[in-house]
Write a structure and sequence with these properties.
Blueprint (H helix, E strand, L loop, with lengths): L10 H14 L4 H7 L49 E8 L1 H5 L6 E10 L4 E6 L5 E4 L3 E4 L2 H8 L5 H14 L5 E5 L1 H10 L3 E5 L3 E4 L6 E4 L2 E5 L1 H9 L6 H22 L3 H6 L1 H8 L3 E3 L3 H11 L7 E5 L5 E5 L5 E5 L1 H12 L14 H8 L3 E5 L6 H11 L4 E6 L8 E4 L4 H10 L6 E4 L9 E5 L3 H4 L5
Parallel strand pairs: 1-6, 3-12, 15-16, 15-19, 17-18
Antiparallel strand pairs: 1-2, 2-3, 4-5, 6-11, 7-10, 8-9, 13-14, 17-19
Helix pairs in contact: 1-2, 1-10, 1-11, 2-11, 4-5, 6-7, 7-8, 13-15
């Protein structure tokens, strides 16, 4: 009897499966598990929507180490396949797109997988959380993406959003994935909807229209547009907190849909057309090879090992911002407990960024500090550097400033707010001069330009 050979999956099909992985944030990992053994190489024809850095009309070959984002996107911290890996998922606010404005984030979910404990987790962060955005003081967390895009910072909106969440929670982030609503709806329709258990009656509005639909308690199968409306609805008693739980419910439902039904033949058959439609709606600094590694891990994690958490009413206080907006002020100890439950299998991951011990937070940041003499006093930078090292500051350079300064001035190149605060306190800078020059590629994170007053008023031993 003749042996049947499995037909190889071409390169374009694998990219489509990668897009599916990102859309559901490794909920569709079964697709990669089936395809990875037959994947060798592919050459795809140029597509208008493709977001890859190195595609060109003359060289359309796509390799496994090409990231699925514009060249201006943030660099990833590659995962070694052995330790915990974390991905920040972001959905953008449709109302901003509709108004033609720079978008804010409408959704933020932090996903994590741990190969050691064979667990995964997801933590939803409310859009109104009041946090320090590096270089911009305190704002709602959904503004981070906006500032990064508006001011064309290195890494753009995703880069600043990742850094903001990292500093807020004290959790290392390897990658990001950004999904537009149209891509999400299209994907849900391709897997023929998702099955959800509706717990109570809810009215949803289809995005982009005024159509209202009532959903009643019970098990239902929702198409993409209604599933999105269900996940985005904020107008229930729990507001954003209820919405965060519904979003996680939809993510698990997508995973279950793909694992329960044999969707692979259908998705493979539609791969070329789907890629054209979906590629422009997804951005990530992951490569296909990195997605493969995530897929292999995620496939081994049973649903009961997937932890879910929301920074809910028990972790915040309701408040009003200086400009009169409703905000959520984090309660440090409560947030730390939720974070550690999701991101550890034993013991805390480290101090959360809203903790009270500023020296501990400064030490965790490991900021690289350049001390520069902006006065006419010889050796001031060297003496100050030695003293600051005794205080625990990571001084990596001591040199002369490019000009003379009357007052000591701090230049912030990479978001390290707790080091800046600690420096201000230990140096007695009651009203410090701080300038933001955000550049994650700089050789140091903070520059202290010592002014002429520092030699006479500093607290260093004489």
């Amino acid at each position: 009897m003749a042996t049947k050979h499995k037909a190889p999956v071409d390169r374009l099909t694998l990219i489509v499966l990668g897009v599916f992985i990102i859309l559901t944030l490794v909920t569709g990992i079964v697709l990669f598990n089936v395809a990875r053994d037959v994947f060798k190489s592919w050459a795809a024809t140029p597509l208008d929507g493709i977001p890859l850095e190195t595609r060109s009309e003359s060289n359309p070959t796509l390799s496994g180490d090409v990231v699925l984002q514009p060249i201006t996107g943030p660099k990833a911290d590659p995962w070694d396949g052995k330790n915990r890996v974390t991905i920040l998922f972001m959905g953008l606010d449709f109302r901003d797109w509709e108004a033609g404005e720079v978008p804010r984030t409408d959704t933020m979910i932090l996903f994590t997988l741990d190969p050691v404990s064979n667990t995964a987790g997801m933590l939803s962060i409310p859009r109104d959380m009041w946090v320090n955005i590096p270089g911009y003081d305190y704002y709602k967390i959904n503004q981070a993406y906006y500032f990064g895009e508006l001011h064309k910072l290195p890494g753009g909106g995703p880069g600043l959003a990742m850094e903001t969440v990292k500093q807020f929670l004290g959790v290392h982030i390897n990658y990001y994935a950004q999904v537009d609503f149209e891509a999400f709806v299209r994907f849900i329709d391709e897997i023929e909807g998702v099955k959800l258990d509706i717990e109570e009656e809810i009215e949803v509005v289809i995005i982009g229209s005024n159509q209202k639909i009532k959903l009643y308690p019970g098990r239902v199968t929702l198409p993409g547009d209604i599933a999105l409306a269900y996940a985005r609805n904020r107008y229930t008693e729990g507001g954003d907190f209820d919405r965060a739980r519904r979003q996680q419910q939809v993510v698990i439902a997508v995973r279950d849909r793909i694992l329960t039904f044999d969707m692979l033949p259908l998705l493979l058959s539609r791969a070329p057309v789907l890629y054209r439609e979906l590629s422009s709606g997804v951005r990530t600094n992951m490569t296909p090879d990195e997605i493969f590694k995530l897929a292999r891990l995620a496939l081994q994690i049973p649903e009961q090992n997937i932890k879910r958490g929301v920074l809910g009413t028990d972790t915040v206080e309701f408040g009003i911002s200086p400009d009169g907006l409703d905000i959520l002020k984090p309660i440090p100890d409560k947030i730390r407990l939720v974070r550690d439950e999701i991101f550890t299998s034993g013991g805390p991951v480290g101090p959360v960024a809203v903790a009270e011990d500023i020296k501990t937070l400064m030490e965790v940041e490991q900021a690289r500090v350049s001390v520069q003499n902006g006065s006419s006093t010889p050796g001031l930078a060297g003496m100050t550097s030695e003293w600051l090292r005794e205080q625990g500051i990571n001084v990596v350079e001591e040199t002369n400033a490019d000009q003379l300064y009357r007052n000591t001035t701090i230049f912030l190149y990479n978001g390290k707010p707790y080091t800046v605060r600690f420096l201000s306190e230990v140096m007695g800078l009651s009203n410090p001069r701080i300038f933001n020059r955000f550049d994650p590629n700089a050789a140091y994170d903070i520059v202290i330009a010592l002014g002429s007053e520092w030699a006479d008023t500093n607290p260093m031993p004489k």
